[in-house]
Specification:
134 residues; globular; Double Stranded RNA Binding Domain; alpha+beta; 16% strand
Length: 134
Amino acid sequence: MSNYIGLIHKEPDSDYGVSFPDFPGLITAAPTLDEARQMAEEALAFHVEGMIADGDAIPEPSTLECIMAERSNKDGVAVLVSLKTSAAKAVRINITLPEDVLQTVDAYAEARGLSRSGFLARAAIHEIERETVG
């Protein structure tokens, strides 16, 4: 299990945001610090699983010193986020969706720093858990 640096950001009247310098564009947010840390762990796992499914290389974790040397990172509070990915092998599938639904999925996933595969896996798990819990 790897640990990556997440940077927590908080503006007045906003949620706690978490970004990952090793994964540009991967950002998550939540109303409380505890929820932000939990969301960061989930977002990182889904993002990496999507990268694996897409055949992308996973970067090695940067050191704290390297990350904090970047001027743009100085305003963030660094936290270690454990990468917990499922041991299951990713399987490529072929699905058909209406074009407008696919565009909505892609826009939503991109805005949250997720791949299409990562978002669809997350959405499926969320729906299954909602059905089984509720």
